[in-house]
Write a structure and sequence with these properties.
The complex is a heterodimer of chains A (638) and B (257).
Chain A: H1 4-31, H2 38-55, H3 60-85, H4 91-113, E1 128-131, E2 134-137, H5 138-160, H6 162-172, H7 184-210, H8 214-218, H9 220-230, H10 236-258, H11 265-285, H12 310-330, H13 335-357, H14 365-382, H15 387-411, H16 414-432, E3 445-446, E4 451-452, E5 455-456, H17 460-483, H18 485-495, H19 497-501, H20 507-533, E6 535-536, H21 543-556, H22 562-577, H23 581-585, H24 587-599, H25 605-619, H26 627-630
Antiparallel strand pairs in A: 1-2, 3-6, 4-5
Chain B: E1 3-15, E2 18-30, E3 33-37, H1 44-52, E4 58-63, E5 66-67, H2 73-79, E6 81-83, H3 96-108, H4 121-138, H5 153-165, E7 171-175, H6 183-199, E8 203-207, H7 211-217, E9 220-225, E10 228-234, H8 235-240, H9 242-249
Parallel strand pairs in B: 3-8, 3-9, 6-7, 7-8
Antiparallel strand pairs in B: 1-2, 1-4, 4-5, 9-10
The chains are: A mainly alpha (638), B alpha/beta (257).
Chain lengths: 638, 257
């Protein structure tokens, strides 16, 4: 087969990625919010079109216009509202908010249309013409032309209109926002409207080839990420070029996967991994000065947990311990669910250590858990290693992977670390899960339970108590760490890495330790989970759950014991009490919404006051002299 | 009375094509407060960042006669170079006392292989004692249990000073410590600096816009203008110089006379 058809395919899909990437970079640079939910907007647009066209029987051009010029801008204005609520909060909170958006839209789509993929009606003519020996579809020509047109139109708009010029200035140097005499809100709103319309358009253009499936469409955001990465998250023309490049590489990988090397496992996974590899390449190889975060330092930081009176606290501890011990006699047939929840306590606890204590971020935590789970299954199922030993070894197996992720954590921070771990989580599930060292290409492994003397893990109550002991031990370890110097260093690092550095502690070691420890604990949790559910496969640890648990944890608070317990209960136990299947399906939506609300800055009296006084200062006439000058003795501005 | 301290020679910093600091030269001997002044954008904070190893630059840095040019920021701090920031870097979610104690602990971390993990009993005692002394020196024991996030600027500046003093650094670089302070607070801050100088064998480099503070505490001044050294000398002489006034007032007189 010749390369030409692949080039046509690559250019077409690359053009869609380019449109998505342009919108992403435009909104990121103007608002400081990197929208992980961007692909979800594309997915929502495709579904909306599907509904308007198939159920409301609107002609396709009307439906397209409604989606791109109606729903897109409306979504943009909603984003602007969200962005106002997120002004000044930490990068983590911003990331969690947009992840909440992703989860919310994904759950809504699944709820309304089902998780099953559906064919998407082509709305562009698919007739094809022979050009230089290659069949090129009209839809392909239109897509490529549209992307080029958009790039040109955007450049013209950014150069010739007042808002456009302001926006370009802000894109190039975000600190200029508000200095140019145009309201920053106006600039940002327009950027959100353009960005969301681009997202909607790219959803429509992509859907005919992927079909209607929420997750597949949401993943277009990854292609947009890598396109944006090629443009160093700041250059619009380079982002366009990046989109095309990713499209071409993708097509080339597909050609290789269809060629003589097709029998190799990893070659089959190659096409889907191209965007992640490109993203990693940029994140790990670009000079770190090139990747600057927009509005990286939020003024609202982690607040220390509220002081609880000692008596109340002790009473609470006694009550929780009592309940935990009594669970097997109270919950009846739901006992296995509570046992699973104990494993989740461990995973949440490890995530809390990383996110809350050390102020870093991981969107790949279920990846660590999967490594632990697979190792556990191999050790207990195949090799008959004792349960507790397997549990610890499973934890150790994830440490090298934690160390790998510490590399981007040292080089990058905040947003770029989140991106790196996001890509890493998906890559792990695409490329590594199917390998024999993990779950193998076909499926499921059996994980054993403890058996030692009179302890028989096959007995549900006995096993519950084994797991309770593990969870308690992990919580104990985390509490000890919190009180040790490492805990103090990690908290200090979350507040100000610079303040530690200039006093003699390079934070790289602390970062690495945090990732290694967190990976270890997450893998122990994943191993315990494997043992609890009995059979594990790739689908036991879906990458999307890494995002869900981050959102759930964020909502659950900050306490070292309280947050993991509350998070595990709401993630694992609560759904089992809900009898309505639709309500269970909509839980991620509720988690997502809650995450957005929690991430937004609480509007309290003082912040409102400072906002008002800032507005007042903006309107007040600027004094012509700088205060510094007036302090020089003997100098009089008049 | 002055001894060896810190010196930065032939310092050059460029951001892309823009030369921010060109040929600056600063000596900070122990036992005296040295001032670094200049109009906004003169490159004072950039000079500080270069001295601490936070940004790439050309030049040579010496601390007590040893070349520290190749060391990273944390290593320079361990050799005895401490600093504060104009935009304060505090551990916002913690109390004043915890801020100061953690700053001391940060100087102990690399003393042993397990230094990142836990503190020994002896180190815990040392930490408490050092923090108490620093809090006392800065006069902020009464607010030791308060969270720094809610404190007024004056007390936050004092907290950051205590965080720097607690480390036992031999040279302190203070970046506009009086910005955001009223005149009474500034006077109080000056008193503390003079007391630090009297009680401890340190050298202080002070970047400052408040000329009353500068003329009161600094013995020697360096003036930067557009990244170039404009003048240096004893404080009174420099402040009387016409070139310095011109740089500040933006007069038509060429700055490099």
């Amino acid at each position: 087969m010749s390369w030409a058809p692949f080039i046509v395919i690559g250019l077409t899909s690359g053009s869609v990625y380019a449109i998505t990437g342009l919108g992403l970079v435009l909104t990121y640079r103007t608002s400081g919010i990197f929208n992980f939910g961007y692909g979800a907007v594309a997915a929502a647009a495709a579904y909306l079109y599907f509904w308007l066209h198939s159920s409301c029987h609107l002609p396709s051009w009307v439906a397209v216009s409604l989606v791109v010029f109606g729903a897109g801008p409306v979504a943009g204005l909603l984003f602007e509202l969200m962005a106002r609520g997120l002004e000044g909060v930490t990068t983590t909170a911003k990331i969690v908010a947009t992840i909440g958006l992703l989860l919310g839209i994904e759950a809504l789509m699944t709820l309304l249309f089902g998780a099953q993929g559906r064919p998407f009606p082509a709305f562009l003519p698919t007739r094809s013409y022979q050009i230089a020996g290659v069949h090129v579809g009209v839809d392909q020509m239109v897509t490529v032309g549209l992307a080029a047109l958009i790039m040109v139109a955007l450049s013209v708009y950014l150069r010739s209109t007042r808002v456009g010029v302001a926006m370009r200035a802000v894109v190039e140097s975000p600190s200029l926002l508000g200095l140019n005499g145009i309201s920053p809100w106006a600039t940002r709103s327009v950027a959100w409207i353009i960005g969301s319309s681009f997202a909607a358009l790219s959803g429509l253009l992509l859907a005919p080839s992927t079909g209607l499936s929420p997750l597949d469409l949401i993943l277009i955001v990854v292609q947009a990420f890598s396109a944006a990465a090629v443009g160093a998250f700041s250059s619009l023309p380079m982002t366009y070029a990046g989109g095309i490049l990713i499209g071409l590489l993708y097509a080339a990988a597909e050609k290789i996967a269809a060629g003589p090397a097709a029998h190799l496992q990893w070659v089959q996974g190659l096409p889907a991994s191209i965007p992640f590899l490109a993203l990693f390449a940029v994140l790990l190889l670009a000079p770190s000065g090139r990747l600057r975060e927009v509005a990286a330092t939020g003024s609202v930081r982690n607040r220390p947990p509220a002081e609880v009176p000692a008596a109340l606290r002790n009473a609470g501890v006694v009550a929780v311990v009592g309940l935990a011990v009594a669970v097997p006699w109270i919950v009846g047939l739901r006992l296995p669910i509570y046992t699973n929840a104990l494993a989740m306590v461990v995973i949440f606890s490890s995530l809390r250590l990383l996110v809350r204590t050390s102020g870093q971020i991981s969107l790949a935590h279920f990846g660590f858990a999967a490594v632990g789970g697979a190792t556990m299954a191999h050790l207990t199922g195949g090799l008959h290693v004792p349960w507790l030993v397997s549990l610890l070894l499973a934890g150790l197996a994830a440490v090298p992977i934690g160390l790998v992720l510490a590399v981007p954590a040292i080089r990058l921070s905040g947003l770029y670390l989140a991106l790196a771990t996001f890509g890493f989580g998906i890559l792990l599930s695409n490329l590594v899960y199917p390998l024999k060292v993990m779950f193998g290409p076909f499926g499921s492994l059996t994980a054993g339970r403890p058996r030692l003397g009179f302890v028989d893990g096959q007995h549900p109550k006995t096993f519950y108590f084994c797991m309770l002991a593990v969870a308690a031990a992990v919580l104990g370890v985390v509490l000890v760490v919190e009180r040790s110097r490492l805990g103090r260093l990690l908290r200090g690092m979350a507040d100000s890495p610079l303040a530690l550095t200039v006093r003699g502690t390079s934070v790289n070691t602390a970062r690495t330790l945090a990732f290694a420890l967190s990976a270890f604990l997450a893998a122990v949790g994943g191993a315990a989970y494997a043992s609890s559910v009995g059979f594990v496969s790739s689908s036991t640890y879906p990458w999307l759950e890494s995002l869900v648990i981050l959102a759930v944890l964020f909502v659950a608070g900050t306490g070292a014991v309280r947050a993991p317990v509350i998070a595990a209960l709401s993630f694992t136990v609560v759904p089992s009490y809900i009898t309505s299947a639709r309500l269970v399906e909509s839980l991620p939506m509720i988690f997502g919404l809650a995450a957005i609300l929690v991430a937004m800055k609480p509007v309290d009296a003082s912040s409102l006051k400072s906002r008002l006084s800032r507005r007042a200062a903006e309107w007040a006439p600027r004094s012509s002299s700088s205060p510094a000058l007036s302090r020089i003795p003997g100098w009089n501005p008049q | 009375m002055t001894g060896p301290g810190f010196a930065a020679r032939d310092l050059q910093v460029a951001f892309g094509g823009l030369v921010a600091v060109d040929g600056a030269h600063v000596e900070v001997p122990r036992g005296r407060i040295t001032g670094l002044i200049g109009p906004n954008g003169a490159g004072k904070t950039t000079t500080f960042n270069a001295c601490c190893g936070l940004i790439e630059c050309r030049g040579r840095f010496e601390l007590d006669g040893t070349d520290i040019s190749r060391l990273g920021p944390a290593a320079r701090a361990r050799r005895g170079l401490g600093r504060t920031f104009q935009r304060m870097e505090l551990f916002e979610s913690q109390t004043v006392q915890q801020n100061v104690e953690l700053s001391y602990e940060a100087t102990l971390v690399t003393c042993r292989p397990t230094g990142h993990l836990w503190a020994t009993r002896r180190e815990r005692g040392e930490t408490r004692e050092a923090a108490r002394a620093a809090l006392e020196l800065c006069g902020i024991e009464p607010i030791a249990a308060r969270l720094v996030a809610g404190l007024p600027t004056g007390q936050r500046r004092l907290t950051e000073l205590a965080m720097t003093l607690v480390g036992g650094f031999s040279v302190l670089l203070l970046d506009e410590p009086s910005s955001g302070l009223d005149s009474a607070e500034t006077t109080g801050f000056g008193d503390i600096l003079l007391r630090v100088l009297a009680e401890r064998d340190v050298g202080i480099l002070l970047v400052e816009h408040d000329m009353s503070l500068v003329s009161r505490v600094c013995e020697y001044l360096y003036v930067l203008d557009f990244g170039r050294p404009l003048a240096d000398g004893p404080t009174a002489d420099v402040l009387a110089s016409e070139a310095v006034a011109a740089a500040y007032l933006g007069s038509e007189t060429p700055a490099h006379v």
